[in-house]
Amino acid sequence: MFSRLKRYLSLWVEEREQVSYTIPEELRIITSLENLFLFIRYVLIFIVISLYITGIFPEGYLVFTIFFGCVMSHNLFVHSVLYLNKPELFTSPLSYALHLLSITSSILATGYENSPLFTGYMLFQFIYLLYSRKKSHPAVTTLIILILYNFSIIGAWSARGITYSSFVLLAQNGILIFSGITALILNFHYQYTKERLSEMEQELVYSQSVIKSIIESIRTPVIIFDETEIIVESNSHTLSLLNQSKNNLTGKRIRSLFFDDLMMADFLSLLKSTGELNTDAVLIAEDGTEIPVQFIVRRFYKNNKQF
């Protein structure tokens, strides 16, 4: 029994092997938000406990137990995801449900329909647009919130034996519906922008592949360098001529390949002013061999960048 307990504890004590992988930007933002919400929930627990001790919220231990259980379960889930380094779990249905349960239980523990934490529902309606993996559904989220909130408040009223405050509940439902409609409109714009960015990214990848194919099909050495004279692309004929690998050549300054740096500096200055260059020059191969060439340069622009 003790050995089994020791093995379980070792999962939290032993240093885990770090796995290196690229986290998408959206997951980075979500992880930052989850860390912020985690801190807020701990602060909320402290405040609620203090208010219950002082008797400001005398709703009873059942409501407090539900609140504490929901919020701590959510916090435990967040700690587990951070520990396992699996931020994609923040976009799972479990995370979705825990958020709603935490908000609802917090509302019940801090004044029911009069709770200032009611705004947490509206915040969730908008933040969920970022959390959704594919397409979010603000209308469905709003419907779930309405059902959960009304069921919780009416159930609490019945359990406490108090008169229903229909006007307050109706007004809050109207606020949630309006917030949901606003989130729906924002979602349309968000999805449109997301799709456009995806299309632009695909077009960029396609254009880059086309350019590389064209460069590679040319039977003469071709080098592309940017306005800072840094080589960004070359074809196989260039690599064969200079006896260099692509990785070794990319990132070098173009003038470093030529025999006379001083004269090349004048040529490149002329290139910047006229946009083109046609002159005789001497290339230096990797093994030091001097190669006379005709250096022809044409300036072009791509993505507002000069090459």
What is the chain-wise order of helices and strands? HHHHHHHEEHHHEEEE
Strand line-up of the largest beta sheet:
1-2
- How large, in whole angstroms, is the Cα Rg? 31 Å
| Number of helical regions | 10
C-alpha end-to-end distance: 69 Å
The proportion of strand residues reads 5-15%
Query: Helical content, roughly?
Result: 55-70%
Tally of strands: 6
Total domain modules:
2
Average pLDDT works out at 81
Largest sheet: 2 strands, antiparallel
Q: What spatial form do the alpha-carbon principal axes imply?
A: elongated
Low-confidence stretches: 4-21
The secondary-structure class comes to mainly alpha
Topology at a glance:
Elements: H1 2-13, H2 25-54, H3 61-84, H4 93-109, H5 119-131, H6 138-160, H7 166-217, E1 223-225, E2 231-234, H8 236-242, H9 246-249, H10 261-274, E3 276-284, E4 290-298, E5 301-302, E6 305-306
Antiparallel strand pairs: 1-2, 3-4, 5-6
Helix pairs in contact: 2-3, 3-4, 4-5, 5-6, 5-7, 6-7
Architecture overview:
With 307 residues, the protein is mainly alpha-helical. The chain is 64% helix and 9% strand. It has a two-stranded antiparallel sheet with strand order 1-2. A two-stranded antiparallel sheet has the order 3-4. The radius of gyration is 31 Å and the shape is elongated. The model is unreliable at 4-21 (pLDDT under 50).
Task: Briefly characterize the structure.
The chain is 64% helix and 9% strand. It has 307 residues and is mainly alpha-helical. α3 runs antiparallel to α4.
Descriptors for this entry?
307 residues, mainly alpha, Beta-Lactamase, 2 domains, two-stranded antiparallel ribbon, 6 strands, 9% strand
